[in-house]
Amino acid sequence: MNSHWASKAQHTSSWLSNSASTMNFSRAENMVLCYESSNKSCPKHVYPATIRAPLYVFFGAAILLTVFGNLLVVFAIAHFKQLHTPTNYLVLSLAVTDLLLGAVVMPPSMVRSVETCWYLGNFLCKIHSSTDIMLCTASILHLSFISIDRYYAICQPLLYQTKITTPVSVLMILISWTLSALVGFGMVFLELNIWGIEEFYHEKVYCFGGCTLFQSLTSSSVSSTVSFYIPGFIMLGIYQKIFLVAQHQARSIQSSVSQAARPEKGKATPSKVERKATKTLAIVMGVFLSCWTPFFICNIIDPIVDYSTPPVLFDMLVWIGYLNSTFNPIVYAFFYTWFRKAFKMIILCKVFQQDSSTINLFID
């Protein structure tokens, strides 16, 4: 591995030397820097106003939708007692991760993306990167536990009430947050992302005014595999099993209904409710994988191609991943009637009425 990095360092060092020569020439041509007074400053790309304004509008709208959409999910599940179930506790915690991403991570990322510089200092850069990794990891761990919850609800319904209880759900949430915090903050503050190439990074890569997580090939491969690919494939396997069982149950129910009287219209059986919840949460998982897969593919490939991925492309893939947190409340609103009813009650301030927390959200 050392010889590999020595070869990579030599190649990249040569490339950076050429870049340094180009930079010196560009400075002579009045190239803009993040910090004009520093020789170690990152270059700054200044977008024209016709691009900056639409970017701020787009990113700002995404942030507002993310924060308020997930805030509605959190408030709805916390307020209405009918929604106090093990599954919804996991959904609430997932919404908290999306809410924190929109409120804490996305605003500084917006300024960094548009201004192409980081002006908040090295320590806050580490906090930002750590929180970013933690929330992404927490999301996929929550989705993994939700898939286990759905497996017992559909495939082992007789064991569901005893296996998936509120204490079990709380334990899943604690595991998700604890492991995610260890991965996110441990990687950044222990500098595991540049383990083995510390000298190369500090001498050839680091500059003032930048805040991107530079990873070695080993770090990007291990972190992406552990935090994304393994849980992702496990979830896909579990949901494939769930849908096979659900299809079998649907055929059995259809066969039984054809030989007996149909149930009263408007009253969904528990199996239908569980299947709809499973379908919705599977879509949430699919949206997550669709949004974050391009980034994690690029994250592994970038060190292999000597970090030649254009910064604009890398930044775009990060924002596509962020938008997953914006889409989740939209999925809930589209598929969950209880969310739409809760949303209306919150907007109309009916949640302040007496006994509003005990209202039945599952009937028209």
Can you say what the CATH homologous superfamily is?
Rhodopsin 7-helix transmembrane proteins
Q: How many β strands by DSSP?
A: 0
Number of helices: 11
**Structural class, from secondary structure content?**
mainly alpha
Alpha-carbon Rg, integer: 24 Å
Task: Note poorly predicted spans.
Answer: 1-28, 265-270
Biggest sheet character: none
| Terminal-residue CA separation | 63 Å
Identify the CATH class: Mainly Alpha
Instruction: Tell me the helix content.
Output: over 70%
Query: Which geometry do the CA atoms define?
Result: globular
One letter per element, helices H and strands E, the order comes to: HHHHHHHHHHH
Look up the CATH topology: Rhopdopsin 7-helix transmembrane proteins
Give the percentage of residues in beta strands: under 5%
Number of domains: 1
CATH architecture: Up-down Bundle
Mean pLDDT: 83
Write the layout of secondary structure elements.
Elements: H1 2-28, H2 49-79, H3 86-115, H4 122-155, H5 157-163, H6 166-189, H7 198-205, H8 217-257, H9 270-304, H10 311-335, H11 337-347
Main location: membrane
Protein name: Trace amine-associated receptor 1-like
Domain G-protein coupled receptors family 1 profile: 69-332
Structure description:
The structure is a single chain. The protein is mainly α and 364 residues long. α3 packs parallel to α6 (166-189). The chain is 75% helix and 0% strand. It is built from 11 helices and no strands. The chain starts with a helix and ends in a 17-residue tail after the last helix. It has a single domain (45-259, 267-358), classed as Rhodopsin 7-helix transmembrane proteins (Rhopdopsin 7-helix transmembrane proteins, Up-down Bundle).
